Amino acid sequence: MEFKTKDETIAFLEARVASLEEALERRSRIHHMIQREVCSDDLLVISRIESGLPPLPDQAYDVELWPETTELTSADVEQTMTDLWRSLQPFQEPADS
Question: pTM of this prediction?
C-alpha cells in the first residue's frame, strides 16, 4: 500500500496501531475470563493450541494417574512414543477443514 504523503502514511499507521491495541485488549480480557473459568488441564491445552502445538494426548500420560511400580511392562510403547512425539510437533489444521 502506497501513500502520497508522509502524513497519510503516519495517519494510516497510527490507526493500525490503535486497532491492534484494541484487539489486544479484547483478547486479553477474553483470556482472563477463560483463565478464571477453566481447569488447569484445559488451560494447558488452550495455551498449546494458541502456540501452534497440538493438544497433549488424553490423560493417559498424566503422571498423577500412573500406578507406582518398579516392574517393567511392554504396554503400547509404539503408540505412546507416537503420541509423545506428536505433542512436540506444530499443530496443523486437518485437511478436511
Answer: 0.46
